[in-house]
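Q: Sequence in, structure out?
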Amino acid sequence: MDLQKNTEELIKFRTETGNLPEIDRAMNWLAKLAAGIRAETEIYKKDALAPVMLLSNGEKRDFDVLVVGHIDVVPAADNMFIPYMKDGKMHGRGTLDMKSFAMVGLNSLEYVINNRLPLKFGVLLSSDEEKGSFGLEAFLKDNPNLKAKIVFDVDVAGDIGKIVARCKSPVFVRLTAEGREAHGSTPWEGIDANEKLLQTWQNIRQIYPYYDKTLPRPADTWVDTVHFAKIEGGEAANVISNHAEALLDFRLTEKSTLAGLEENLKKSMVDGVSYRLVSAGRPVVMDENNPYIRAYKQLAENYLNRTLAFEYIGGATDSRAFAERGSVVIMHSGSGDGMHAGGEYVDWQSVEQLAEIQKLFLHRLADKRD
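A: Exactly. Output:
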């Protein structure tokens, strides 16, 4: 398999989350690629949800190793879907997040098949990860027996020199404020929903501090955070708003609970404001001394000829569903920068290095089984 060429071809598909026709085209292309390496392909579709693709070396639901990732991307300008190489870096939307690493998974699948490794191996790709992974959630609900001993989570891009040991829990909350219309010149005759919303937000901020680039970086970043993801309120400049809404993005460490968050929200509400949980994930917390994780880390260090560090990140990935099912999740991918931005790129050498590390680890697992 030509890893670079196939990555470039996959990036050309404009698989922005929700663009189902283009996502279908990309999955059909991947299915043809999988057929060429004699892999089994399943494309799961349900209702109007985004499809999920499962590629494997056999019709199985109990994997030794499963690569988990996604092929959808955030919106970008047209030219970002024309990938190019410059100074060892591949530029374009999805180079880092995370089409290059999805192709590493297919590369490993081909390796397992060609070398007849005695492993049950699969690659699971969702197509709405950037907006909640509802398609994957439905797929897993309809496949309760699907599990994997080890999961390669390749959706933690940033530095091949680091293995992620913990991810925070993402919780999205919608605030709704109700008021009473009045002319803007006579506020005493109305109730300002915008004001109610901001009062509630100030109460929330008393519990969850504000951080930004202009402030001193906290000594410990493994803390609960929240930011205003979206806020809407008011119909006209001279009318007191009678309705306002805000979407909040909480990131909770494993030390916090959903019940604790709700208790804090209830304390923060003012009259006329209510909250609703939109979605809630669970944190991924791996034991850094797990034998599989330690073996992978040592192998990667030997191959890269450098020491790898464990890190904790605030982002969430689809692997949390498998952590809940008892999988050992190895969160490791390549290096790059510009995720979700105009200058997105991946260091191509790190992609090739990740591919080799996966193959070496798979061979070691296979040898132990023999």
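The chain has two domains: 3-168+283-369, 169-280.
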